[in-house]
């Protein structure tokens, strides 16, 4: 659209988190739904779920095809961004975003401080009229559980790492790291399932991998429950009508209420298949909540191939415990007096994407605006714009079934906003709208609402 962006990228190349994945990481989303709208996957990629190398190649070829590398400054970590312009008091009195409602306002600029040389700690400050944060939420800032004194990793004689550090290792080093060791993986989402599966492939039944989890979640082996395409159940306009959503109006609300038994049936249909196919009862793995809840919250994962066969043969052991702590020889869990003897603990406990976002702002006032209270979401109008932070957008914070697709749609929306095709509503209206979506997330995602997932309410192209 005729802009001249500068992209600061901390790593030496494109691809983001796809540069550091586990050996067996693949797309969980079918490739037809995980593609740029103007750049289909090459015909040489036959798989519906390409592996991490293929995803990297796809992203790299996109950057080359559209000649994007010319805009990117690699090895350039942004260590802080600071709004320079109107005072906090003036900003508090604004009715319109940025004071004028325009994306490019004469009232302020952003100073972007970039670390140019990590060894000499030399920095350079760039001044820009608009900043877009695309820093990812599943990397760099791990969620490490907190423990009482002397019950954390410091009390343990073995090694403790986060799943992120396992993913950073190359494949051979990762296998060497777990080989012949008693490994406990904490968590039972996608990182945990994949790592446990890889450990079991390396160690077999001699050294089973323990998976310690506190809440079971639905996971699915493929997208055809009882032979019915998942997209027919969830990713179409009819399925959308079954979901209550903000600002839906009387007729749509009535329709969603009338269709709620169908929504319930849809969930039970998938659950019945997963219970049967994965024999969840046998492994005490039936979640306490519905499939639809996990689906809306974005807390479902694709089960790695043969995962439950490995549980059956004994190379993976599943253990449920609401809490855990460390001792000299391993991990203490609820109801056990002896520790789970362990050499290596891998915390597949997720990330603190909100902290990562907060910390990039220099101003404590803006940090507070972004992070909010612990019982709120990061409030973004259209999942892009914070009503109280001018001349700035965030792409990549809220989750969906196919992030690449929804991120791209937001990028298009944002580009039109920057071009002036449309104007944002008043700050108060955007805040009310963001609050409505927060309520939606709380209603549909339960305790996981801070993931800001819109997965339960999404249509996908070509699925
Ligand atoms: C292992 C894994 C697999 C996934 N698989 C799927 C999937 O199958 N389907 C799906 O829809 N989603 C998947 N996701 C979700 C994934 O987050 C998105 O699909 C997408 O790849 C995220 O892209 P991003 O650009 O927002 O973030 P990232 O890929 O994390 O990229 C952020 C970039 O910002 C850079 N950066 C960060 N901070 C700074 C800074 N301060 N200064 C300069 N540069 C900085 C980083 O170096 C990085 O290159 C997966 C996530 C993970 C962790
Ligand atoms: N395509 C792929 O193959 C792939 C691979 C890896 C990751 N991903 C994506 O990357 C994102 C992050 O996935 P992730 O698996 O790393 O993290 P995650 O989805 O946030 O899961 C974190 C896990 O850790 C548990 N946990 C968190 N804090 C804990 C604590 N204090 N004590 C015990 N358990 C705790 C959670 O349990 P509770 O549920 O009880 O909170 C959950 O099981 C997701 O979007 C995922 O889809 C994709």
Structure description:
The structure is a single chain. The chain is an alpha/beta fold and 463 residues long. The protein folds into two domains: 239 residues, FAD/NAD(P)-binding domain (3-Layer(bba) Sandwich), CATH 3.50.50; 195 residues, no CATH class. It has 15 helices and 17 strands. A five-stranded parallel sheet has the order 7-16-8-9-12. Strand 14 and strand 15 form a beta hairpin. The radius of gyration is 23 Å and the shape is globular. 35% of the residues are buried. NADP nicotinamide-adenine-dinucleotide phosphate (NAP) binds next to helix 5. Belongs to the FMO family. Its cofactor is FAD. GO terms for molecular function: flavin adenine dinucleotide binding; N,N-dimethylaniline monooxygenase activity; NADP binding. This is Flavin-containing monooxygenase.
| Beta-strand proportion | 15-25%
Low-confidence stretches: none
> Average pLDDT, to the nearest integer?
94
First CA to last CA: what distance? 29 Å
Distinct small-molecule ligands in the complex: flavin-adenine dinucleotide, NADP nicotinamide-adenine-dinucleotide phosphate
In total, the number of strands is 17
Would you identify the CATH H-level superfamily of the largest domain?
FAD/NAD(P)-binding domain
Helix and strand arrangement:
Blueprint: E1 7-8, H1 52-65, E2 72-73, E3 77-85, H2 88-93, E4 108-117, E5 122-128, E6 131-133, E7 159-162, H3 163-168, H4 171-178, E8 183-186, H5 190-203, E9 209-213, E10 219-220, H6 230-234, H7 237-241, H8 249-258, H9 260-278, H10 291-297, E11 301-302, H11 307-313, E12 316-320, E13 324-327, E14 330-333, E15 340-341, E16 344-347, H12 353-359, H13 364-371, E17 392-394, H14 403-419, H15 427-445
Parallel strand pairs: 1-2, 6-17, 7-16, 8-9, 8-16, 9-12, 10-11
Antiparallel strand pairs: 3-4, 4-5, 13-14, 14-15
Helix pairs in contact: 12-13
The chain binds flavin-adenine dinucleotide (FAD) and NADP nicotinamide-adenine-dinucleotide phosphate.
């Amino acid at each position: 659209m005729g802009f001249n962006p500068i992209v600061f990228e901390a790593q030496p190349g494109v691809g983001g988190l796809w540069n550091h994945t586990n050996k067996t990481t693949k797309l969980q989303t079918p490739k037809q739904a995980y593609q740029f709208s103007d750049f289909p996957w090459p015909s040489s990629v036959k798989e519906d779920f390409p592996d991490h190398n293929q995803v990297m190649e796809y992203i790299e070829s996109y950057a080359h095809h559209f000649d994007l590398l010319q805009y990117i400054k690699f090895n350039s970590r942004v260590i802080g961004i600071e709004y320079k312009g109107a005072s906090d008091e003036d900003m508090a009195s604004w009715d319109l975003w940025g004071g004028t409602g325009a994306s490019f306002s004469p009232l302020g600029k952003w100073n972007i401080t970039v670390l140019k040389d990590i060894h000499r700690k030399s920095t350079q400050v760039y001044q820009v009229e608009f900043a877009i944060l695309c820093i990812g939420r599943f990397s760099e800032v791990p969620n490490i559980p907190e423990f009482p004194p002397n019950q954390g990793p410091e009390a343990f004689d073995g090694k403790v790492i986060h799943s992120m550090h396992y993913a950073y290792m190359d494949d051979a080093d990762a296998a060497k790291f777990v080989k012949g060791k008693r490994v406990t993986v904490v968590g039972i989402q996608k990182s945990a399932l994949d790592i446990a599966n890889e450990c079991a492939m390396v160690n077999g039944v001699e050294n089973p991998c323990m998976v310690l989890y506190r809440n079971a979640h639905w996971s699915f082996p493929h997208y055809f429950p009882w032979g019915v395409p998942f997209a027919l159940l969830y990713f179409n306009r009819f399925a959308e009508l079954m979901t209550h959503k903000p600002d839906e109006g009387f007729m749509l609300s009535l329709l969603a209420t009338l269709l709620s038994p169908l929504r319930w049936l849809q969930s039970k249909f998938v659950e019945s298949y997963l219970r049967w196919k994965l024999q969840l009862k046998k492994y005490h793995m039936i979640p306490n909540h519905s499939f639809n809840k996990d689906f809306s919250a974005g807390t479902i994962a694709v089960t790695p191939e043969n995962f439950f066969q490995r549980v059956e043969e004994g190379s993976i052991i599943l253990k449920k415990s609401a809490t855990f702590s460390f001792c000299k020889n391993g991990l203490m869990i609820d109801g056990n007096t002896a520790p789970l003897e362990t050499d290596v603990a891998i915390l597949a406990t997720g990330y603190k994407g909100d902290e990562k976002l907060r910390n990039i702002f220099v101003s404590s006032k803006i940090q507070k605006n972004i992070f909010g209270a612990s019982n709120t979401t990061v409030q973004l109008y259209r999942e892009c714009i914070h009503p109280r932070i001018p001349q700035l957008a965030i792409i990549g914070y809220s989750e969906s079934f196919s992030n690449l697709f929804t991120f791209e749609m937001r990028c298009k929306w944002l580009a039109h906003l920057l071009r002036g095709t449309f104007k944002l509503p008043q700050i108060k209206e955007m805040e009310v709208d963001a609050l409505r979506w927060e309520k939606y997330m709380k209603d549909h995602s339960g305790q996981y609402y801070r993931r800001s997932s819109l997965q339960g309410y999404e249509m996908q192209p070509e699925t």
